[in-house]
Here is the input.
Amino acid sequence: MNAIKRLFSWLRRLLLQPSAKIGFGLLLIIGFAGGVWFWAGFNAGMQATNTEEFCVSCHTMEDNLLPELKKTVHFKNRTGVRAYCSDCHVPHDFTDKMARKMQASREVLSQITGDIGTREKFVNHRIVLAQREWGRFKANNSKECRSCHDYDSMDFSKMRVTSQMIMRSAAERDASCVDCHKGIAHELPNTEGMHNPAFDSLLSEASSTKITEGETYYNVVPQALYLTADKKEEAGVIEIATPVKVLAHEGDMTQIELDMWRKNKGFGRVWYTYFGLNIPDVTINKELARDENLVTVTESREDPLTGLEWQKVSTKLWVADGGLMESIEPAWDIASQTYADNCSTCHRQPNPSGHDANQWPGLWSGMVGFTNLDSDTGALVLKYLQLNSSDFGESSENTPIEETIQDARPGVVS
Here is the structure.
């Protein structure tokens, strides 16, 4: 203890003496030793915070993200080579690494404040966290991914033919890995309930639309249908881009006429504007779908392609004001741009007229899973594709079905 006291006493006197009385060499040695000590400690701290043990030390990561990673090929595979948290989420370059460490303080703060402290809160906040990482990967062209997966080192001949086509195209464009491979190591965020700001512009325009009785308008957002203007009983839901004829106006409610087709199968709840085409426009509540006092059947016809009987039906229901527009073109502008932005990163997106209306739902369900579109936006894009399909092209033959479509398609773009 006496030796330690003498050492500290000597250091104190040394530090308190004017620098002129201290040899320059001694100051240099002390500064160098202090720098080495600081750098070693700093580097050890950085290495410790990059370990998987540190990453999953908070229960949010251990309970939510680690179990997802364990299910993927990045955790366990035939070669035994696996990726750790820092391999993907911490840049390897020093400057970028420091910037990412500073950004990560937001997630730490969210954990401390309880914003993501429970499973429910984490799931609700997950889309924000995911979009940040997707944006970072997009900005640096998936630099961390390319530490292991580099286009120049890929042997395309060993891939499946379908994979070859996509990967060769991606290599030619030097596409970012995250363009196609969102959800490769963790589950995709749940987009249910998300709001697309683009719909606000549609509602703003619809709110200023002057409604005239007897004219045809288009519904711009999914909304409830009611039996009466007092909204005491819901009758169903009307989808986006559905054409309706306005009959009357009362207070803040508009009465509309629906003149559509349905399949004479089951309750016949789903109604379609166009005969023979699976483009849903209205869903009627089950207890009302077969109510003869509400629904009038005016015609029956067999679909020659499926053998199913279709019925022409009509009814009069009410919707809230502010959801109808004279033209559907503004919605199509949003849909076409969304389709181009989200479906051209993995491959060249198909031309809408390259498939018929009944083919598009299956094709779209296979593509939309690779995007982070919310349900309303996805439904809008699908409807855009169906209503701009080959069934509505000028070159389509005048079969009985297409004649019916052309007779019943006011305002639909070709």
Remarks:
- Residues 247 and 313 are 17 Å apart (CA to CA).
